[in-house]
Write a structure and sequence with these properties.
With 427 residues, this protein is α/β, with parallel strands linked by helices. The protein contains 17 helices and 16 strands. It folds into two domains: 184 residues, 3-Layer(aba) Sandwich (Rossmann fold); 213 residues, Dihydrodipicolinate Reductase, domain 2 (2-Layer Sandwich). The strands form three sheets. The protein has a seven-stranded parallel β-sheet with strand order 3-2-1-4-5-6-15, sandwiched between helices. A seven-stranded mixed β-sheet has the order 9-10-11-7-13-14-16. The two termini are 36 Å apart. The structure holds NADP nicotinamide-adenine-dinucleotide phosphate. Belongs to the saccharopine dehydrogenase family. This is Saccharopine dehydrogenase-like oxidoreductase. Keywords: Membrane, Transmembrane, Transmembrane helix. InterPro entries: NAD(P)-bd_dom_sf, Saccharopine_DH-like_oxidrdct, Sacchrp_dh_NADP-bd.
């Protein structure tokens, strides 16, 4: 069982590392809102980063936004830098869990995971990069298992809604669910959607290194997952979806990779029936298809060369039609944005044999929530940490590098998310 108690030498339940970042500041606010959900109603926490002054400003801002002046004096600050391994070790030794918001994770994430494993500290991150996530699984799974440490990646919008959504839909289906497609859509207010450019930088690195993912996957040497029931057909790269009434593309990101890793773990660990999964996202009408084609072609061409990557990094707003910017979204943009994941599942009703004939049962579920990157992500990350702290006995028996679904399949994470505005329902 995961070790979750604090002690005199390990005084904090959690430390938010990278608290001065765009996402980190909102994780600080979310932790401050949920302290009463910690063990025995009292979460002990601190914030960390490489600049004490910036961290003080984050506490000052959170104190003002939340009307909690005590945050200025009661929350401890730890100075730690990814470039200084001793400072990472010192940070890890003081806490049960590190919530890692230092990004891009593909640049700075590995030293944090290494320090966590070496110092027996659990780690939760919000990487959405399959190359980083699968690479960390390959490199640290057995060491983390030996130390009894849980390294749980992709605990933000990428990919808690998709991964837990698959498990939720499976659990609600009366019978054996074998195939599932999700359709993701976003809504925004008059000022549109916007994301901070560190995520754009993460995407550039991930695309530039995409061949390395195949080599990591070869090293795992996995057997194919057993095929149960009739095969789920793959859709095209662009199609009109009758489900969400708009043009649709496969999701770019880690949802598919994370769900597949979870399914493999559940098959191997609990002999579960695997669910085949297709992840799609709505892009709207013809105007957006033209913008996407322009962005996609420019991105695909420029990302191959270092001068091209520098151009993309320097001008995120130009190349993304304003979707990514160096300032990130305004509070108004965040307050008026939301996401919806519509899941369409099929399987075999109770008493039907999945090895015989076509799927005969259907289910539809919906997962909806607030702005995805800086409102839903902090909620998901903090609830993931609170689940580790409060439900250690329901985590997998051994430590290791886990997906959210692998770590939290037997916990009440979905109920916790429901209480915090990320709602799962059958429709
Ligand atoms: N899964 C999701 O849906 C989701 C949503 C949002 C964000 N993210 C990911 O979260 C990560 C952070 O994004 P962001 O927009 O918040 O980035 P950001 O604003 O650039 O923040 C980066 C943070 O990392 C810190 N940092 C950089 N180098 C460091 C070092 N050597 N030592 C210690 N700290 C260091 C920065 O500290 P300083 O302030 O001192 O520079 C800052 O606190 C990215 O990987 C992004 O893709 C994921």
């Amino acid at each position: 069982m995961a070790r979750v108690e604090t002690s005199s030498s390990r005084p904090y339940h959690l430390v938010i590392f990278g608290a001065s970042g765009f996402t980190g500041q909102f994780v600080v606010e979310e932790v401050a809102r949920t302290v009463s959900e910690g063990p025995n109603g009292n979460l002990k926490w601190a914030i960390a980063g490489r600049s004490k002054q910036k961290l003080e400003r984050v506490l000052e801002q959170a104190a003002g936004v939340l009307g909690k002046p005590e945050l200025r004096t009661e929350v401890d600050i730890i100075v730690a830098d990814v470039e200084e391994p001793d400072s990472l070790a010192a940070m890890c030794k003081q806490t049960v869990i590190v919530l890692n918001c230092v990004g891009p994770h593909s640049f700075y994430g590995e030293p944090v995971i290494k320090a966590c494993v070496e110092n027996k500290t659990h780690q939760i991150d919000i990487s959405g990069d399959p190359l980083f996530l699968e690479g960390m699984q390959l490199n640290y799974s057995s060491q983390a298992a030996d130390k009894g440490v849980y390294i749980i990646g992709s605990c933000g919008f990428d990919s808690i809604p998709a991964d837990m959504g698959v498990l939720y839909t499976r659990d609600q289906f009366k019978g054996t669910l074998t195939a599932l497609e999700s359709f993701l859509t976003f809504s925004s207010g008059p000022d549109g959607l916007c994301y901070h450019d560190t995520t754009w930088l993460s995407g550039i690195k991930s695309f530039a290194d995409s061949q390395k993912l195949q080599s990591i996957r070869r090293k795992f040497n996995h057997k194919p997952l057993p095929a149960v029931g009739s095969k789920l057909k793959r859709r095209g790269t662009l199609f009109y979806s009758s489900e969400i009434q708009q043009y649709t593309i496969p999701v770019i990101g880690c949802d598919h990779s994370v769900v597949k890793r979870t399914q493999r773990f559940l098959v191997e660990e609990y002999e579960a029936t695997p669910v085949q999964y297709g992840a799609y996202a709505g892009i709207g009408g013809i105007g957006n298809i033209i913008k996407l084609l322009f962005t996609g072609m420019m991105f695909w061409f420029l990302v191959k060369f270092s001068f091209g990557r520098n151009l993309l990094i320097k001008h995120p707003a130009f190349f993304s039609f304003g979707l990514f910017s160096k300032d990130g979204p305004t509070r108004k943009q965040m307050d008026t944005s939301s996401f919806q994941f519509a899941f369409y599942g099929e399987g075999y009703t109770e008493g039907e044999d999945p090895s015989q004939g076509k799927r005969n049962g259907k289910i539809r579920t919906l997962i909806q929530g607030p702005e995805c990157a800086y409102v839903a992500t902090p909620i998901a990350m903090v609830q993931a940490a609170l689940t580790v702290l409060n439900e250690a006995a329901a985590l997998p028996k051994k430590g290791g590098v886990y997906t959210p679904g692998g770590a939290f399949a037997k916990t009440t994470l979905v109920d916790r998310l429901n209480k915090h505005g990320i709602q799962f329902s059958v429709i």
